[in-house]
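Quick one, probably user error.
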């Protein structure tokens, strides 16, 4: 591979070039090893869900499970083309999937705005198909909304944070804001990875710019 190839931005596959995947879903642990709550639905009726891509999902999941009002979290793959992908397949860049974290939360304790503040402040949303040294389509920044209300809050938060980033000398935000796609659970060893491996890799890092979009419930 030449240095020119290394400089090329990773490209999303199309339907013709995406890996075929499989019909069978990944086995999922019954219980979150930190929170002790179910990993799969049905979730409590008062809870809502959010889905974010911010780079390597190990550190991102830990970020969210440590917040108040979180019922459960899980890491997985979304916003791609390949059904039920494996980690190895996602890493090829030929599935189109992003590494994401599913967050089930109590909106009476932690509002969606608070989750978005954590989202914006803990990664660099201007880097396109990478986060720091992690390079690839699976490391892109993404907000995947479940309701029109979430969409409106997410889009407004992007506008607010973009102004703050530009004032601090950063570039344009590349975050995709899309309707929540199918969420595919990642392999069991990825779930709550940094709890099981406290010295494991965490590539999470923000810009140092405060978001301050509000903390409403």
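Nope, works fine. Designed sequence:
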């Amino acid at each position: 591979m030449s240095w020119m190839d290394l400089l090329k931005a990773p490209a999303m596959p199309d339907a013709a070039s995406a890996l075929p995947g499989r019909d069978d879903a990944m086995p999922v642990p019954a219980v979150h090893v930190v929170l002790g709550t179910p990993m799969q639905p049905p979730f409590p009726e008062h809870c809502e869900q959010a889905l974010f891509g911010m780079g390597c999902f190990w550190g991102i999941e830990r970020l969210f499970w440590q917040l108040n009002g979180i019922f459960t979290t899980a890491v997985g793959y979304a916003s791609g083309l390949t059904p039920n992908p494996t980690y190895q397949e996602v890493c090829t860049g030929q599935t189109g999937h992003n590494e994401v974290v599913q967050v089930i939360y109590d909106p009476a304790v932690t509002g969606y705005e608070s989750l978005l503040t954590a989202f914006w402040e803990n990664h660099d949303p201007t880097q396109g198909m990478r986060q720091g040294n992690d390079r690839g389509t699976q490391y892109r920044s993404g907000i995947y909304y479940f309701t029109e209300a979430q969409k409106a809050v997410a889009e407004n938060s992007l506008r607010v944070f973009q102004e703050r980033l530009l004032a601090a000398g950063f570039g344009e935000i590349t975050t995709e804001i899309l309707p929540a796609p199918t969420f595919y659970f990642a392999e069991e060893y990825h779930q709550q990875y940094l709890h099981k491996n406290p010295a494991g890799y965490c590539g999470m890092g923000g810009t140092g710019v405060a978001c301050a979009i509000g903390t409403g419930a």
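The CA atoms of residues 103 and 140 lie 18 Å apart.
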